[in-house]
Specification:
Elements: E1 5-7, H1 20-28, E2 32-37, E3 40-44, E4 55-60, E5 65-72, E6 77-84, H2 90-119, E7 128-129, E8 138-139, H3 162-179, E9 186-190, H4 196-200, H5 221-229, E10 244-247, E11 262-265, H6 267-275, H7 277-290, H8 295-314, E12 319-322, H9 324-333, H10 340-348, E13 364-368, E14 377-380, E15 384-387, E16 390-394, H11 407-418, H12 420-428, E17 431-433, E18 437-439, E19 450-453, E20 456-464, E21 469-472, E22 480-481, E23 486-489, E24 494-496
Parallel strand pairs: 1-3, 4-9, 6-13, 9-12
Antiparallel strand pairs: 2-3, 4-5, 5-6, 7-8, 10-11, 13-24, 14-18, 15-16, 15-17, 19-20, 19-23, 20-21, 21-22
Length: about 500
Amino acid sequence: MRYVYVLDMDGKPLMPTCRYGKVRRILKSGQAKVVDTLPFTIRLNYRTAGILQPVSVGQDPGRTNIGLAATRSDGTELFRAHCETRNKEIPKLMTERLAHRRASRRGERLARKRLAKKLGTTAKNLNERLLPGCKEPLAVKDIINTEARFNNRLRPEGWLTPTATQLLRTHLNLFERISRILPVTDVAVEVNRFAFMELTDPDKMHFEIDFRHGALFGTGGLKQAVREQQQGRCLLCRQREIEHFHHIVPKSKRGSDTIANIAGLCQECHTLVHKSQEAKERLDKKKQGLMKQYGGTSVLNQIIPSLVEELAKRYPGHLHVTTGGKTKVFREQYELDKDHDVDAYCIAVSWLFGIQPRLQTEPFEIKQFRKHNRANIHCQTERTYNLDGRVVAKNRKKRMEQKTDSLEDWFEKMVKQYGSKKSKQLMARLMVQKSTRHYNAKDRIMPGTVFRYAGRRYVMTGQLTGGKYYRAYGMEDKNFPVRKVTICQQNTGLVYVA
């Protein structure tokens, strides 16, 4: 069942309805108009009394997956959604940024070399410069033209890293999105703050902090922390849910009950690890990679105080905080499925008393898209050298992380194989394909844009053939010709995809 969400003449939310017949009649008569199709929202064209009921919104915070739900005071579900953030694509973008900065620094070094050659300040080694007042030449890489600025900035109180700030805004924006279609009166949020020192080594005594009633109290303990770290999925296959908590170093060999020694596995992978040495080594390697400062959990710890503080400002006296342990008890009591949107429902009703769970709606899928891309260059082809129709080298010298031969490497190989004279003859026969740049259009449409094709709603994920075709979320390799589509909404960051 899906609700129809209703707004008054001023755009303020009213209580949703399931009276589809009445909705059709008032739309047909012109008393209301459709504002959005997902979730289906209408706005009235006439004044109404606007009788409202208390609505509680619960949120299950996460790094990659966030749950959101709204209920009435009797526990009746009004809204439920699962949001997937951009966390998975951030490492790739950071790697690309690193490569660009390396290339930029290399360009600066080459510029300093050219300037030194022009001014006659070069040393015997081209990578060194003779500067006024220096007795010995300095390496080009050690010469800094401008003063470093990253260390002379004052950080205000409550400062967060850019990554944490983006995650905090995502959580707050989800509350804002749901408040546009529902008259929210109360909000509830789950606070899971894990004590990393205890998780790493529970035998250590920290007399200044009572860990029995600290960050782990009421969170479900070590197993809950492992679930959070792995987003509830098997560490080996990353597809099935966790069924077993496997000790990487067995307890019989003095293995400890710590988060660093425990991996959540499904039944199949758990059996495989006990039978195959290769699977065991692969699991150990994956766990070591996962243990890099507890990834998503540490960022959540960073934003939770700011999240609670901001929600307390927006909803004074109507903010309710719960823990993962209480959510787990409620879910197991009523035999509910373990999912982010279901957890959000449990959180929304955590402060209500004497209710029965009423999960009656299908959850929405929300995906976060990159809203801005200021890159002018879309891509750049490499300088290619062909010999008799076959590519033998790329670039004069190897670029960073280039695995194929450069022209310099190829020529050295030819000299060793055929000698200098024949190598020069082969080089003279090379066909050169110059490097070309492909630029982004300034008015290009970003992924996450909502469009209509053949009367159906789709969310764009990319473009093909210079923007002549679109690709849509969940439609695999199907192409949508641009001349037959209608743009409904530009990318808003958080987009309903299903």
